Amino acid sequence: MFIFQSHFLLLFKVLKKHKMNRITQLFGIQYPVVQGGMIWCSGWELAAAVSNAGGLGLIGSGSMDPDTLRVHIRRCREATTRPFGINIPLIFAHAPAFINLAIQEKVPVVFTSAGNPAKYTAMLKENGIKTVHVVANTKGARKAEESGCDAVVAEGYEAGGHNGKEETTTMVLIPHVVQSVSIPVIAAGGIGSGRAMLAAMALGAEGVQIGSRFAASTESSAHPVFKQKILEAAEGDTKLSLRKLIPVRLLDSPFYKKVSDMEANGASAEELLAFLGSGRSRKGMFEGNMEEGELEIGQVSAMISEIKPAGDILLEIVEEYNALLPTLKPV
Amino acid sequence: MFIFQSHFLLLFKVLKKHKMNRITQLFGIQYPVVQGGMIWCSGWELAAAVSNAGGLGLIGSGSMDPDTLRVHIRRCREATTRPFGINIPLIFAHAPAFINLAIQEKVPVVFTSAGNPAKYTAMLKENGIKTVHVVANTKGARKAEESGCDAVVAEGYEAGGHNGKEETTTMVLIPHVVQSVSIPVIAAGGIGSGRAMLAAMALGAEGVQIGSRFAASTESSAHPVFKQKILEAAEGDTKLSLRKLIPVRLLDSPFYKKVSDMEANGASAEELLAFLGSGRSRKGMFEGNMEEGELEIGQVSAMISEIKPAGDILLEIVEEYNALLPTLKPV
């Protein structure tokens, strides 16, 4: 009887410890932590490392062509038996090919961003793929829900890379989106610790998407020089830029300064596009050219101080979350 | 024995319910909720209403002269026996007179903002006044701690009115400031609900400062037309503006559009100052001129839908906080 009880207690503790919610159930993962699909940073090595540690790893397709993406999907599948996904920016020319590739390769999860999910969601879901869309406002969240998405990522102003025109921060955006849709909400923007994850869950999110912290992980394919710059970033060192095109959060750099000067002097969208040319983000984030390259990273970089394996980062976040939870008291 | 136990249990519940922390102890208040000292919105009526409900009400001195402030302090004292405070923007010409007034009138708490607290903190504290400084970065927080402040308010990018140059959001700013100082941190920016308060406390804050939600309260001295505009504000309707002078978050309006056009066309700080002239905020927030007046409000206005008595707002926030706390689960 005593043995039975102690087993029962153990089972209860395990269940309580690995509390399921709608996000862990949706993806079939252990912890409701998604690694953001980032251009030039998140190939198969990072995605597999996060999925192996119990989160959901995403391959960022935005910097790939279809052949490259196929290689990354296959390698990721070799490196993990657990669920993983790909992120597809819908404004990208390769998007239709990527959608077909996801279906052919039976990728378990697709996150779409930067565009209208209505076009592809039904097709993805008919093929058994869990589909999530990234939004920056409640209108986008409602459209994603109507188009059949299983969940939304709501991403705040503090996030690195592409950003919403409303500039709504995570603190304000998450409760508003949670109130506006019935599907589960994954919070993104400014989250790099268990403390911030706890805050996101308090705001009503059922999971978090973490980008910058994983961009600075061992398995990230970011150039070592860019990873070092992330560690060195201080408060105020990331700037929302290119509001006339698509707003994007950049690390302060000679490239950013040039863009900023052009904007302050009233440059048109065409002039900005001409200056940007192509290949700027590859040059910066992948090739390590800190002068001419575009460097996308979030505000939370000011608190990132160490490059670690992605699995260690994930477990540190989960442990911090669970350790801080009981410290919250009624008022 | 049973009766003793039930009394004991009741006492325990009461103590647990009204959990003290460093912020409630510092100010001698029931709930760790501070009503932000806002120009043209927070006179003695609002401050007294919040203090009477168990929070800390602040008279916003930034729109007053010394005689007016003295009247507000005295009326506030007549209207509540509980602690209250005043907010003093240190860049304001009347600041030295306000500091002396706070000492003469034995105001229990002074919040300073927009300037260096080192000049006045010692004097205020020698006179038994609890002193708090508002900051937007860790450097400011450390300076406030070194100057002897009892606490800091860390205010994020989403907040209405004056704003930090770094544009760091509440989600990123609070844990960074908490990690940087030993004195308690009060979170501000984007907080208008119990949900957001819970998130702020998860980030390590020991109290919250709430502005916009109280600007739209019955006791707020904002013009009824401005209060109505706060209710109508949608996502993206507040804009960080005047980055060349002191960044300030404004509600979208004809005045904002004019400033924004000038900025987009490369207007200098001098040209902007000349256009602003004086009395713009009085005209907008106090006199209800929605065309020419300056309207300061936070991003959280997009979620404010009703004008209520300040005491009801405070209790609703506290109840929501306490109701949501047990819904947070381990992961």
Secondary-structure content class of chain A: alpha/beta
The fraction of residues in strands of chain A falls at: 5-15%
Tally of helical runs of chain A: 15
The CATH homologous superfamily of the largest domain in chain A corresponds to Aldolase class I
Distance between the termini of chain A: 41 Å
Can you summarize the main beta sheet of chain A? 8 strands, parallel
What is the number of strand segments of chain A?
11
Instruction: Report the order of strands and helices of chain A.
Output: HHEHEHEHEHEHEEHEHEHHEEHHHH
Largest interface (CB < 8 Å): A-B, 59 and 59 residues
Can you give the helix content of chain A as a percent range? 40-55%
How would you describe what is shown here?
The structure is a homodimer of 331-residue chains. The first copy, chain A, is of the alpha/beta class and 331 residues long. Chain A contains 15 helices and eleven strands. Chain A has helices at residues 2-17, 22-27, 44-52, 66-79, 95-104, 118-126, 138-146, 170-180, 194-202, 212-215, 224-232, 254-264, 269-276, 280-286, 310-324; strands at 33-35, 57-60, 84-89, 109-113, 130-135, 151-155, 161-162, 185-188, 207-210, 238-241, 248-251. An eight-stranded parallel β-sheet of chain A has the order 1-9-8-6-5-4-3-2. Chain A has a three-stranded antiparallel β-sheet with strand order 7-11-10, covered by helices on one side. The mean pLDDT of chain A is 94. The interface between A and B is large, with 59 and 59 residues.
